[in-house]
Input
Amino acid sequence: MYKHLFIPGPIDVREAVLERMATPMIGHRSKEMTVLQQRISKKIQTLMGTENVIVLYTSSGSGIMESAIRSVTRKKAAVFSVGAFGDRWYEMAVTNRVPADLFQSEPGEPTTPEMVDEVLATGEYDVVTVTHNETSSGIVNPVGAIGEVIKKYPDVLFLVDAVSSLGGDWIPVDEWGIDICITSTQKCIGVPPGMSFASVSERAYQAALQVEYRGFYLDLVKIYEMAKAKAQYPSTPSLSHMYALDYQLEYILHTEGLENRFARHARMAKKVQKWALRHFGLFAKEGYRSNTVTCVQNTRGIDVADLNAKLAPLGFVISDGYGKYKSKTFRISHMGDTQDLLLDELLANIDNILGL
Ligand SMILES: *Cc1c(COP(=O)(O)O)cnc(C)c1O
Output
């Protein structure tokens, strides 16, 4: 039986999108491919509120994160973390020998503009990384306000992980001064996993030119230059994903519409938060709660594996906590094309199973 995915990615993909993945192939150096790429880029620019160059990577979002921090850090990166995915950016820096320092917030607390300002005032850093929406802890960071602070430091690049929020929450890239904004296809976008995309500013590109060792496959300079000049890629992209993405972006922008889409995510988040506060607790501090995934404090000590075993025959699955919060929290996603009615059904099923 199919289980509806209320885990924070991958999530349910609409049948029509899945069908697009079966479109016959074209040459990756053909004119048709260029046209497809240009069409996708235009739509992503609208989705992100940016005029920056859009790059697609045939890797999951982690590929662009690694590419970004490695390709543009000249002096040192200041990595701000509110959970496992923030920490991941630091591990990427360390394993690529990119100089970096990690700044973690207290559990449940966001990265604040004040923290970033204090760290940048030292003059040691030329890159800041922030997780917009931390999937492990359900925290959404004040990226706009952080961007304002970073604008005071003209040499500093702003890298944002928006993997679990872009497409479900409004992230105006140019207004917020984001140099590289990254997302994957399998979360709020509603396309199968295997591709990711990002906006890249001219500043970020210029910075990357000054970095000597950027690797080969994930070299941001090569990918940026080819995307900009030819609307193509150095190596063969996943054309199947591109067909699906092109189709789904059309749906997001013009069938559902961005405002409706963001409102639906916010509404579903409120619903789950209310439910969680009635029966459990919330991990994220008020004012910093994600619109796309809710991290619930497991105050009743329920066994999430057991709950999932009972949800499975009803056609649902949720997620346990991440890393060290595995049993202390559990997570319910409300992202992508998931609709209110299905979410209501999930919560009613959980209430029944747990006798709430
Ligand atoms: C899922 C996720 C990632 C990793 O993305 P992949 O596409 O699995 O590589 C990174 N950051 C956040 C916030 C995520 O939710």
Summary: The mean pLDDT is 97. The radius of gyration is 20 Å. The domain at 4-10+257-354 is CATH 3.90.1150.10 (Aspartate Aminotransferase, domain 1).
